[in-house]
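My main concern about presentation is that the manuscript never shows what a single data entry looks like. In essence, backbone conformation is discretised, so a fold becomes a row of integers matching the chain in length. An entry of this sort, consisting of the sequence and the corresponding backbone structure tokens, reads as follows:
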Amino acid sequence: MLNVSRPSFVWSAVVCLLASIAGSSARAQAPVSFLDRQLSRVDLALSGVGEITSAVSGTNYLKVPITLKVSTTVSPLVTLRYIKSPYVGLELNYGFARYTENFSPSSTIIGGAQTKATEYTLGYVVHPRQIFGIKPFVAAGAGTIAFKPTVLGGQGLPEQARAAYFYALGVEDTVFSPHFGVRVQVRQVFFKAPDFGQNYLTINQHTNTLEPGFGFFLRF
């Protein structure tokens, strides 16, 4: 039988315990890597937003009054953010909507032009102080919207891109975990009314789309 003295056994246990504590402390105090620090500042969000575009009117090159009314729809919005500090942040937005551009008088384009509108924008984000545990944010930026009439319902019109400007107001909260939360916001996007390169549709007027939205975000 192996004979192990009690003092020797106790000292061995104490040494093992101290080594374990030291290892745990070293791991807890290990510096965060550059990559981990950068990833902790990134979040990816998917929201559903309403697309409510204001009607706009003008006259074409023949001095004929033209009014553009866009159908209302709901579309997805993907937002990637990098937040360095409460007052320093960037966001990249990708939005996709499909609706009908209705020009009047109806003889201009019978039945309207079904269009895919894709938004690519870059913005600056600010997160002021929390209110009742909820984090508000304000964002503003610019980019472009590509208007692409559909194959079957686009009346044969060509694709056209317009410069776009936006702002957003909202609140967010990590209600489920530090890495998963909810975002509620209202955006407004401004752009020149599309004419698809057709002078009989050109009215040289700006319009805007109001986008109330709700979604979820994942923080790395």
Observations:
- The domain at 35-219 is CATH 2.40.160.20 (Porin).
- The mean pLDDT is 88.
- The two ends are 55 Å apart (CA to CA).
- The beta strands are 42-53, 56-59, 65-70, 73-85, 88-104, 113-126, 135-149, 160-177, 180-192, 206-219.
